[in-house]
Amino acid sequence: xxxxxxxxxxxxxxxxxxxxxxxxxxxxxxxxxxxxxxxxxxxxxxxxxxxxxxxxxxxxxxxxxxxxxxxxxxxxxxxxxxxxxxxxxxxxxxxxxxxxxxxxxxxxxxxxxxxxxxxxxxxxxxxxxxxxxxxxxxxxxxxxxxxxxxxxxxxxxxxxxxxxxxxxxxxxxxxxxxxxxxxxxxxxxxxxxxxxxxxxxxxxxxxxxxxxxxxxxxxxxxxxxxxxxxxxxxxxxxxxxxxxxxxxxxxxxxxxxxxxxxxxxxxxxxxxxxxxxxxxxxxxxxxxxxxxxxxxxxxxxxxxxxxxxxxxxxxxxxxxxxxxxxxxxxxxxxxxxxxxxxxxxxxxxxxxxxxxxxxxxxxxxxxxxxxxxxxxxxxxxxxxxxxxxxxxxxxxxxxxxxxxxxxxxxxxxxxxxxxxxxxxxxxxxxxxxxxxxxxxxxxxxxxxxxxxxxxxxxxxxxxxxxxxxxxxxxxxxxxxxxxxxxxxxxxxxxxxxxxxxxxxxxxxxxxxxxxxxxxxxxxxxxxxxxxxxxxxxxxxxxxxxxxxxxxxxxxxxxxxxxxx
Length: 564
Fold this sequence. Notes:
Elements: H1 8-11, H2 17-31, E1 42-43, E2 52-54, H3 56-64, H4 68-79, H5 83-88, E3 89-95, E4 98-103, H6 105-118, E5 131-135, H7 147-165, E6 169-176, H8 181-196, H9 214-225, H10 234-259, E7 266-269, H11 270-275, H12 278-289, E8 292-295, E9 298-301, E10 312-315, H13 323-337, E11 340-345, H14 352-362, E12 369-373, E13 377-381, E14 384-385, H15 398-405, H16 407-415, E15 423-426, H17 427-431, H18 438-459, H19 461-469, H20 479-489, H21 491-501, H22 505-524, H23 532-555
Parallel strand pairs: 5-6, 5-11, 6-7, 11-12, 13-15
Antiparallel strand pairs: 1-2, 2-4, 3-4, 8-9, 9-10, 13-14
């Protein structure tokens, strides 16, 4: 669709919000240069306060030796002497230390025009030049992805998409933990399941993985190899069976991740790092940096220097590397391709933060590693709480959740709360086709707009064509129209805030706010009217809102349906 900008004259001389803040800041500095005040405008907390506000007057009270109310009035008077400020500001009022500003309607009309012109690129940040390694969702290759991983997959992928939109260069990673003792237990478990196909009484290992998910793996192994492994001793068979099970399980994990709309740039095998000698090289690198020492026959790394409660073993007394040794090698590799490394870990991994800080310090890259802990979740079906334990074989897989509630609901619900908050996921609520279900509420907003546009294509084709070009936006003056436009203006800053604060849950909140503002606008303002100018302007607002809703949902991994 070819879009051009119109109504340019209506917007001539308007400042952007950043430019407006700079002009108010210049006015404040001219009055009190010794204080070096800086102005930042934020959306007003209540509509009656105006559109945006700043608390700069509070910060100047001591230096100016005046009441914040008086300071605000003087800043406003000086700022309004600027022609650009006068063209952009409809009203400015000092209230209890705040400067509340109402912007002219043309300011918000321009926002709608920007969204129409830029389409899916609306709100995109300029490239920051910062390369980010983002690891999330990683699970042991000993079983299917479970519902807990679904939360981390959703949060990590949403953050990656938001950071890319904000201008970061993001590389997503998954570590396959296939170098530890859990693989031996997996091999013994498959050995037992394989034998049980012939002898159901064959003993299952106490430390095995008892879930039924290994039965089809055993059946596939037997279909390939026949009775071969019935004649091979367990000790000899386990390495081969562990590798077979790992490959089958990882392939399933990858398939489920793709179904969940999550793609990774790299699936890194820990065993591959061992085979390539990266573990030994990583240890030797730290040795040369002088942060290792020997004690009790083991090799230790000084992590207490970074605030850890004790130093950590990297090579055991029997010569075997610890899990932390694997981290050393892998994280050094990450640093070669990234300026900043972010790891999502479970709440029981708090101790890893200081260890990674110690590594970053040793590599002369302090602060390069960042750990985000994702709190536990509870799965419910109405009033029933579902048990989840891989070792006990009581699994609720991500696949099952997708089958029951769909990808859209699962992705949205998993992201709704901050990572530092435990999540209760109610499967029954996620399936409801009503406004009580937040994802349904947001998707319905998008579908409602699509319905309006379909009708307009039949009844108002000329107005729709003009709206798509961004024409006639000067007719947007109703308070409900401007309130929705103000919300659309928050899209870019919201995405940037998500990226900076690592807070993808803000996107689901924003999506609900946009949908709520649209529903209120739609109920109060008829879109398809007998007045061509009104219809054109409101259709433009609808198209811009549809663009923002679709972009926000896409970042959350949720579809934006045109009909429901």
